[in-house]
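Lecture 7 notes: from sequence to structure.
We start with the chain below.
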Amino acid sequence: MNRSKNCVQNNALRYSPALVLVLMLGTIAHAGDWPQWRSDSARNAVTPDELPAEMHLQWVRQLSTPRPAWPASQPSLRFDVSYTPVAAGKLLFVPSMVTDSVTAYDTDSGELKWRCFAGGPVRFAPIVHDGKVYFGSDDGYLYCVNAADGQLLWRYRGGPTERKVLGNERLISSWPIRGAPVLHDGKIYFSTSIWCFMGIFVHAVDAKTGAGVWTNSGDGANYQPQPHGGAISFAGFIPRGYLGVRDDRLVAPGGRTTPAYYDLDSGRLIEFQWGRKGSRAWQVYGDVLTLTAGTKQVTAASGVVTMGDWKGTFDGEPWSVLAADEKLFVVTTAGCIYCYGARKVTPTEYGLSEHSTTGDEHIGIKPSRVPRASVELPDAVFEAANQSAGYGIVLGVPTEPTVERLLRNSKVHWIALDSDSERADAFRRRMTDAGMYGTRVSVHVGDLADNSLPPYLANLVVSKGRTHVDAEQETVFVRNVFRILRPYGGRAFLEVGAARLRKYVDAAKLIKAEVRPVGDNWSLLVRDGALPGAADWTHNYADGANSSVSKDELARAPLGLLWFGNGPPNDEVLPRHGHGPAPQVAAGRLFIEGGNMLRSLDIYTGRLLWQRQLDGLGEFYDRTGHQPGAGETGSNYVSLADSVYVIYGDKILRLDAATGKTEVEFVLPDDDDPAAPNWSYIAAWEDVLVAGASPIGVTKDGFVPQRYSSASKRLVAMDRRNGRILWTLNAEYNFRHNNIAVAAGKVFCIDGLSRAKRDLLKRRGGSLDEYQPHLLAMDVRTGRIVWSTDQDVFGTFLNYSTEHDVLLQAGSAHRDRAEDEANEGMVAYRGSDGSVIWKNLGLSHMGPCLLLRDRIIAQGPAYSLLTGERISRKHPLTDRPIEWRYTRTYGCNTAIAGQHLITFRSGAAGFCDLEGDSGTGNFGGFKSSCTSNLIVAGGLVNAPEYTRTCACNYQNQTSLALVHDPQMDMWTFNDLAWDGRPVRRAGINLAAPGDRRSDDGTLWLDYPSVGGRSPDIPVKMEPADAKSFRHHSSLVRVRPGSAGYNWVAASGMEGVRRVTLTLAKGEVPPRTYTVRLHFAEMQDVKPGERVFRIAIQGQESPGALDIAKEVGRRTALIKQFTGVEVTNELAIALTPISRSSNATPVICGIEVVEEKASLGN
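Predicted C-alpha cells for the same chain:
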C-alpha cells in the first residue's frame, strides 16, 4: 500500500465552493447509482430505479480513440474495446486505457470535474463505494481515491516488485491488473499478471483501509493438464476480465479459458477445469446490450437504444450501457459517450482537443513559434529523434517546447522518467490536454537506479542537468543507462563531457560502448553491435550447417518476461499445421512469414519494423491440415544482418534487412527451357548464396518437376551481393534439401533418393539397378569436389559441427515430418577430408538431430559427436552413472536449442535446462507452435505468435520475448527413478509445485510429488494431514549473505511433528550427513507465538526456534546440523513449546548432503 499523492483534481473543481463538495459527497452511492461493472458484484446489470419514460439527449462527449489491449481476432479478451464508466450521485467515472486515468464528469452537464492518473492504462470499470472510487491499472496497483475530488487515499501493489515490461505496446508492470476489481462485503477482489511463469496473484483487500486480507500467489505454476490430450504443464489458471461474486465464491473468468472459483474467505482455488477441444460449452452470439432499470428493459444495438416505446439514436456501435441518476448513458466502440435524461434541452457536444496527434502541431505549438532559446537540448538530440523510431527515454520531465520538438517528424514514443510524483502528474495533465498522452508520450515515476525498466528498451536516452555527485555514483548511473539501451545502435545523449564519460564507461567495464563528443558539455554513448555472447538464428535450422542449435550464450534459465503483445496480431501469419519456416533472427530483427507477406519485428520491443506484401509467398504452407511443410521442403528465405533472401517463384529477392525493400532480383536462365526455373532451396555462407533450382518430386510417374518439393535437380552458387553465378551442379538423382549443409567453406550434399522413394520407383517399373548415391563435399566458391563417398549413403538429414569439423549423416523422422525420412543409422565424417570417424547403421533415432557442442541430441537421448557413444550423466541423488536424456509431455514440434536451453512444446511452451541440469520446465501461459518458434537468439528466447487456427484455448495467444532473470520462479520434472542406493545429496521442497536444482547441485524434489515424475525418495509426514501452504517465491526475502532459497521458503507444511526420510534401502553402512532445515514465517505471527524445538535422530538441538523473532515474516531461515549419522532413515522431530493458537511448528524444506568423511562408504 502506498499513499503518495499522484492524483490531481481539475482546477474547475479545486476552486468550486465547499458546499458543492459536501453535496456531491452526500449523494455518492445511493440507490440510483451504477457503482460497478454491470451494477453489482454478481454482474446482474440490474438497477431497482426506474428511468424516465421519455428521455432526450443531454450531452455528448467524444473521448480519445480507444486503444484496447488485444486485437479483434481475440474476441474473448476484448474487455476494453472502449470505455466502461460507472456512476454515483452526480458524477460519471470514466476509466481510460489511453491516458492512464479515471475522469469524473458531471452527469447533468457532461463537464469534467476531476481527473486522477495512474502509472499505466486503466482498462476496467472503476468501483464507487462509500465516497471512494477504486480502480486497477496496468501499472499493477489498485487505487483508492476520494470520489468528490480524485485525491489519492491509498494504493495497493498487486505484484511483488516494480519490475516493468513493454506490454500491449505500453510500458507497464510485469504484473498488470487484468482480473478486474469487484467489491463485495467491504472487500475488493482483483488479480494481477497474465503469465503463469511470472506468477499469478489474486488478492482480497480491505476497501476501507487498503490492507491486504489474503493473497493467492501459489497456483500459477500448478502442474496440470492443458487443453490438449497428454499436454501436462506447469501452467495454472489466469484470471482475465471482470471478476464476480456468487454465494461464497469469487468467480474469475479466464478470457480464452474456462472460469475458475476461489473461496471468498481464504482465496483457496476451489475449482478449475480446462475446456478442451471438442468439449461442450455455452456460446452466446450477438451485438445487443441489455440492462434492467426498475421494471423496464433497456436494449442497445447498432445506432439505437430503446426502452419500451422510447427510442434514442446515436452514431456507431454500443459498447457499454448504464442507468444512473435518472439518466441513461451509452458508450460507443469509437469512444463517444451519450447521455439521455428527462430534460428537453439542446445537447451539449464536447469534442476532442483541437490539437492534432499527427504531423507537426503535436501539442498546439506551431513549428515556427517554438523559440529556440526555450529548447533545452542540443540540436543533435532532435536530429537523432527525427531519424529514429521505437522508444525514447527522457530522464526528468521535459518542457513543452522540448517535447514538441522531440515529437516533430519523429516516430519515437517518448517515456519520461522522473522521481517527483507531483511533477510527473503535472506533465501528464499537460500532455493529456494536448491530446498526446499515452499515444506519443508518457511519464513514469521512478529512477534508473531501481532497475525497474526492462533492458534493451530504448533507441534513444536523453539526460540533462544531472547533478554529478562522485565518480562511483556516475559510473553506476552510466551502467544503468547502458543497460536500457537497445543493442545495434541504441544512443544516449548525456550532459557530460566526453573525457569524463569515457572514464565512467571504462570504470563500468561496458563492452561495445562508444563515446562521441556532442559540443562542449554533451556526449553521445552508443551501444554498438550485438550483445556480447548473443548469436543469430539465420536459417530454418539455425544456420546453413543445419545444426538446429544457436550459438547464443546469454539465454538461460530462469527466464522472465521482456515484452508481450506488441506489434501486429497473428492474423496474417501462417497457420500452425502447415509447418511454415521457423522464424529467423539476425542483428536484432526477427523475420516471420505469412501467406502473402514477410514481416520484420524488433526482438527487444516487439514493434513492427516493416512488412512486405508478397502475394502467394507462403501459399504452400498456408494450409490448416497436417503436413511436413518446411520440415520437408526447407525454408523459402534466409535472414542475414544486411539482407533477407526470399524465394519468390522464379526469382530470389534480395531485400534490405532494415527496410524490406527489394535491392536485387536473381533469376537463373535455363539452357533447356526458355522459361526460368523455380528456385526451391536457399542457404548462405559469408558472401555466397547457395540455392536449389528446378525442384522435382518422385511420384508414381517417376521424376516430375514440381514447384514445391523436398529436393532439387540443381545446385547453384552465386555471389549473394549481385547474383553472379559462381557454379552449378546437376544431380544424377536429386539433392534433398535437408541433405544440404553449407558451412566451413563447403557445401555438403547427397545426390540420391530415400529408401521409400526408391521403393516407389521400383513398384512403378523404374530402373534403379545401378543406383549409386553419393555424399559430396564441394568448395562453396568454386564447386570443386573436395571429397565424395558412395559408401553407406542413406541419410535424409545432414548437419555439420563447425566447432569439431564433423559432418553427421542421419535421418529426421518425427511427428509431422516427411513420410520417407530415415529413422535409423548415423555416420560421422571428418568434414575436411570425408574420413569416417564412427558409424552406427542400426541406431534408431528421431530427428532432426541437434549438434550441441560435442554431443548429438536426437530429440531425447544424446550421443557423443566424436565417438557415437551414449552420453551419460550422474544420477542427481546417488551420483551413479545413468544415460542422459530429456523428456517432455505432449508436443507437436521438434526441439531446437541454444547453448544453455533446449526449447520445445511440452504441453505449454517448454524447455530443458541444460546449464543447471534441473530437468524439463515450462513457460506457462501459452503454447509454442507446431513449427518450432521458441528461438534462442539475440540474447533472448523469442516467441513470435505462430499458432493461428489453433483451437486449443491456451491462456494467451500473442508474441513475447523472454530474458534471463535469476529472480524468476522455475519448476521442472525429472523422468528418473531412485533405486534405493544411498543418497549423496537431495532436497525435499515441501508443498512445492515441482522440482528445481539449486546452484550447488542439490536437486530439490517436490513433496507431495505433484509436479510430474521425479526420483522420489520415501517421505513420512506426521501427522499425515499436516496443512500445506504455497506462495510465489517473490514474496519471500533472502537476507544478504544467506544461503537460503526463496523458492524453498515460499512453501511448506504447518503442524508437522515428525518427518522421516528414507535415504537408503537394504543393508548399508551408516553415513554422515549435513542436514539443513529451511524455514519461513509466512503468516501474521508475532515473536513468541510460534516457538518449537528441533530434534534430529532423537538428539535435541540446544535452544528453541522462534522464526518471527529471529528473522521476521516472509524471510528465509536455515538451521544447519553437521555430523548427522544415518543408516537408512533420517528422523526430524519438531515439538511446540508455546501455547499460542499459532504454536504448531512449520517447516519448508529439508536438505541432506553427505559429508566427505563418509564418501568412501
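Points to note: The chain has four domains: 11-279+289-350, 367-527, 559-964, 977-1158. Residues 367-527 form a domain with the Rossmann fold fold (CATH 3.40.50.150).
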